[in-house]
């Protein structure tokens, strides 16, 4: 939690991965281009929380970088 005035001024830690293609989930999917991988497998390999992974995957799909066919995700070649 931060004070409202700090929030409005932007005085807080910014996101670590401004470039989505540099996010650990993106790097992981790019590393395994010949595979489609589900969220459980990504969670085990990256040690990130499922909700974080799902959020990043949704953004990557929206950006057209990842293909999703439930329950799998793959980096678009």
Question: Explain this structure to me?
Answer:
45% of the residues lie in helices and 13% in strands. With 77 residues, the chain is of the alpha+beta class. The protein has one domain (16-75): Winged helix-like DNA-binding domain superfamily/Winged helix DNA-binding domain (Arc Repressor Mutant, subunit A). The mean pLDDT is 92. Strands 1-3-2 form a 3-stranded antiparallel sheet. It has helices spanning 4-9, 24-31, 39-46, 50-62, and strands at residues 37-38, 66-69, 72-75. A hairpin with a 2-residue loop joins strand 2 (66-69) and strand 3.
Extract low-pLDDT stretches.
Answer: none
**How large is the count of helical segments?**
4
Overall tally of structural domains? 1
Average pLDDT reading: 92
CATH topology-level name: Arc Repressor Mutant, subunit A
Radius of gyration: 15 Å
Order of helices and strands: HHEHHEE
CATH architecture: Orthogonal Bundle
The CATH superfamily turns out to be Winged helix-like DNA-binding domain superfamily/Winged helix DNA-binding domain
The percent range for strand residues is 5-15%
Order of the strands making up the biggest sheet: 1-3-2
Number of strands: 3
Helix content: 40-55%
Query: How far apart are the first and last residues' alpha carbons, in Å?
Result: 40 Å
> What is the molecular shape?
elongated
**Structural class of the helix and strand makeup?**
alpha+beta
CATH class: Mainly Alpha
Q: Major sheet: size, sense and barrel closure?
A: 3 strands, antiparallel
């Amino acid at each position: 939690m931060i004070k409202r005035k700090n929030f409005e001024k932007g005085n807080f830690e910014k996101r670590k991965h401004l470039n989505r293609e540099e996010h650990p989930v993106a790097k992981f999917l790019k590393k395994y281009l010949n595979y489609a991988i589900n969220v459980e497998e990504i969670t085990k390999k990256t040690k990130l929380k499922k909700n974080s992974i799902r959020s990043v995957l949704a953004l990557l799909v929206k950006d057209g970088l990842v293909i999703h066919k439930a329950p799998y995700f793959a980096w678009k070649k």
